[in-house]
Amino acid sequence: RMPNRMEHRLPMQGCQENMRLVPENRMSEIRTQKEAVVEEIKSKIQAAKSVVLVDYKGLTVAQDTELRTNFRKAGVEYKVYKNRLAKIAFNELGYTCFDAALEGPTAIAFAMNDSVSAAKIAAEGGKKFNKLETKCGLVDGEFNDADALKIIASLPSREVLIAKMLGSMLAPISKLAYVLNAIAEKQEAQA
Fold first, then answer.
1. At what angle do helices 24-47 and 83-92 cross, to 10 degrees?
2. Per-residue pLDDT reduced to its tens digit, 153-187
């Protein structure tokens, strides 16, 4: 059959001889779907406090499921996108430094609640599974390579930092109260 002007010829899976016909309206539908995915990635990058790219090559299904569960418990969205679409989204937002990392099997973790959780879970997964590798990330709008993300992952959580700060603030007050109480008891004993 002869193709009409509204159809394009696309090769089937590496065979140049075997061409299939794709209607023009289907091509625009596919393009629209890809543009929607790029917009989804862009909105997640903009909303996230941190974004971490990981290489998941070599993980078993059970290991990947466990990793996804850990991310989900921490409020981190972990998803695999096509590298080309992720690269377009990062580039449209002005982050060209991710281009090299978006090669090979790549998953993206979006942490919406805090800046440390995605890097921390990725680092823990790397230690536990020996195959998960942190590539790079975006923390509070700044690009970080794998080494910087390891340092960020070693930071205590926000709750721990707040507890330490409150403890250090309350220590002098409790010491003052103890001293004042001792003085008052001493004066009562003398009276």
1. 60
2. 877 766 777 777 777 777 777 777 777 788 888 88
